[in-house]
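Feature request, filed as a ticket because there's no other form

It would be nice if the structure record came with a short human-readable summary line next to the tokens. Right now we just get the raw output. Example of a typical job, pasted below so the devs can see what we mean:
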Amino acid sequence: MEDPATPLILIADDDTANIGALTEILGRKYKLLSADTCARALEVAVNERPCLILLNTLLSGASGYDILPKLGEIDATRYIPVLMITDPIDVSSEARGLLLGAAGYIVKPFDRELIRARVDAHVRVIKYIREVERLSMIDALTDIPNRRSFDVTVNEEWRRMFRNRSPISLLMIDVDNFKDYNDTYGHPQGDILLKYLSHTFTKCLRRPYDTAARIGGEEFAIILPSTDLIGAMGVAESIRAAVEAMRVPCANLGTDTFVTVSIGVAAMTPNEHHIIGDLIEQADRNLYSAKTAGRNRIFA
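Raw output as currently delivered:
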């Protein structure tokens, strides 16, 4: 995926002259990738999620129009605008592309200023859409991914681990006696605690693709791709110990001293016999076991 500071544009074209001309026009402002077949263009679009696709109507013996419906069917590419690269065309051909989902056309010979203006306009729109999308996936209180983001990410990582035949682990975390904490110190103080805890969870993650999410109330989840049960237990223990080390006075001073968390851990290597719901259910069951066994502990 592209660096947010430099928007990425995919040029799907097998004509090196076109690629060279567009690179000269756009290369100073944008990061450019190229693909010379429909299949390769689709693969790059899904994996890299460019801000814009410039697609030749003729691509390695195939019609560029064939890829438009496919882009519209995939979640990762559905909202990426596509500008068709073409020779001067008649109205019926232009209408065909627009009906299939194209956002517009770039007509050869290329007009430098028109191309820059048109590309800039579409990139601004898609950047705005992605910012709205990002904000809708962030928990407003803790500033980490929310339940919606968790659902999307855990399904994506499950599919990715299925392709790679790699394990995936899931941690379900619950703040012990949080209702008592809220009742004693008030909801504003409870919100502050949740913010500190989410920051602590994030600091305990070792890789950029590990994900902490708030999935409801005082419950959190950690997604650990390419991680087996032993590795997940290590992350869970680092989180449990870090929270305990915060030494936040808890509400129930008669039996406990500081705020703690309970963690359920589950790990699977995705295959044809399991679905992501199996992993989530196992982690939930293990969290319940950790709570009933006395809290401030890990169960796997």
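Something like this underneath would help us a lot:
The chain has two domains: 8-136, 147-299.
The mean pLDDT is 91.
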